[in-house]
Amino acid sequence: MEVIQTFADEGKSGLRIDGRDALKALLRAVESGQAPFKVILVYDVSRWGRFQDADESAYYEYVCRRAGIQVTYCAEQFENDGSPVATIVKGVKRAMAGEYSRELSTKVFAGQCRLIEMGYRQGGAAGYGLRRVLLDQSGKEKGALSRGEHKSLQTDRVILRPGPSSEVQVVQNIYTWFIEEGMAEKNIAERLNAMSIPAEGGGTWTRGLVHGVLTNEKYIGNNLFNRTSFKLKKLHVVNAPEMWIRKEGAFEALINKETFYTAQGIIRGRYRRFTDDELLERLRSLYLRKGFLSGLVINESEGMPPASAYSSRFGSLIRAYTLVGFQPLRDYRYLEINKVLRRLHPEIVAETTRVIESVHGQVNRDARTDLLSINGEFTVSMVLARCESTPAGRHTWRVRMDAGLDPDITVAIRLKPSNDEPLDFYLLPRLDFASCRLRLADHNRFELEGYRFDSLDYLVRMANALAVDIKVIVSKLHLLQGICSEALHVLRDREFSTQVAASLRKMKPSRQIECAEMMVAANCMTVRYAQALLAATPNHLLLTPRRKSPRASQDQINQLERETENLRARYRVTELTYADDMLNLVVAKGYVGKLLAHPAIESYLRKWHADLFPELLAVVSLSTVDE
């Protein structure tokens, strides 16, 4: 028996099939009827997943057997021959796999609660006016964590500290304006934007951001946890206050408690439980001011209870409208949604441009069409897909691609049912989507779900992947000089910096090979790791022996061992999915085209790689995957 392909979801949760790209790819291959294999080797029953419904993993095995492909378990003591005994044993093991996840969830939650009660931060951004600070296992500060950075050692802990004095002053001003001047959150946001004060992350202030500053207890130094739950990846649940885990005085406060609770009293007073008459009186006053009503109008008006309160109290918004004398002759919500969409699209385009440029990508935006050119390699069109609800409670999204613009990738932004903010993003390459219209549902087939992402981080990685200037290529021509061919062969599929190469060049060939193998085995190509290996290299294995022959310090050895163990525990993401291949092909196509446009590179390839050059031309001219 020969293993011809491996499908591995390393480091992925087995509670849901969402995110299991390799398993989806396996099922696609099986259901296509063209799988190049006849037997699937599975380590044990739990590898299908630790689903809380044991029948789900049974179904995926059934799909494989239905297609005529045998499923064989490597580490199980029974033979998977379809006998009653095998069926019973598999059912028990599937239930045990799900129970393992439930028990682990309970233990992890208990550990998180314990750390909260000790005053440590559990994930999430610090928030405006605050910064995350990293502590080692002894409680000594190691430094501040920048946005997007994470701790590297399990024994490290994170706490919050006040940020720059300018941000702290803004937080205090927000409370002053809200309490003493009686300004609403929306007006405070407008004032901050008029003063050109950026919000967290460099964006603009909104009513929601200001409200978050006014209501979050971290600004008085309290550490809160378990306000919401997402256990076993089922449903997001908002927990009652008595279920919250709280550590008071965990951090240095930016606001005194008296000021904070005064603000909470004002907010609670706005949202007290109104009588039916009070609700209708406020709605009637809003109708007289605006001339029409809608859910968005109600939610965006200061001092108004949310539209859901009217729908819940009176059975529906339409009945509440009738009670105040408003008879909608048309769907005014459509007008409000269009207004939101006209505002939302340029905001998303601008934010995407800013993030790509922050990682040194180049974005050129066509002011007339909003088409984005990324690094001069591929083009992106961003379209909003409005959510439409059916009478049965389902949701659909119609995507209209800009066929006339012919973008390489269309980013379809699905909106939430409220149509006021993004739900998720579909990155649809033209290579795989010839039609200019597409309809999405709550749950779509595997081929579409592979292109779904919760954020635009993947697009940013695509922009960052090959954002290389020709001058950079020329500057790195001598990168590999001084490294033996055997070591280069070990590192052939790895990316590493000039500093790593510099460390390897100081070693003799035998040591270069040994260190290259260690770096690949640990999946770590960092400068710090290479320097640690150099420091641990004996004097006789260096090209230029040290004047003294100091041994690596015990601290260096301990640090090397800790980092190696930590890095060995990391998973390597294997991009086996069809969607990833298509999106990578878009980037490669644009990048090769950019290289061939350079006369010197084209001449070099024609002269020295005549056999490869036609293949590169074919990649550049590719318009669909069917070619």
Automatic annotation (TrEMBL):
Q: Which organism is it from?
A: Acidovorax temperans
Record PANTHER family: DNA RECOMBINASE-RELATED, DNA-INVERTASE FROM LAMBDOID PROPHAGE
One Pfam match, given by its short name, reads Resolvase
Where the record annotates domain Resolvase/invertase-type recombinase catalytic, the positions are 1-121
The identity of this protein, by name, is Resolvase-like protein
SMART domains on file: Resolvase (SM00857)
The cross-references to InterPro entries, in alphabetical order and at most eight, read: DNA_bind_recomb_sf (IPR038109), DNA_bind_recombinase_dom (IPR011109), Plasmid_RepB (IPR011111), Resolv_N (IPR006119), Resolvase-like_N_sf (IPR036162), SSR_resolvase (IPR050639)
Please give the Gene Ontology molecular function terms for this protein.
Answer: DNA binding; DNA strand exchange activity
Report the domain of life of the source organism.
Answer: Bacteria
Q: Which Gene3D superfamilies match?
A: Putative Large Serine Recombinase, Chain B, Domain 2, Resolvase, N-terminal catalytic domain
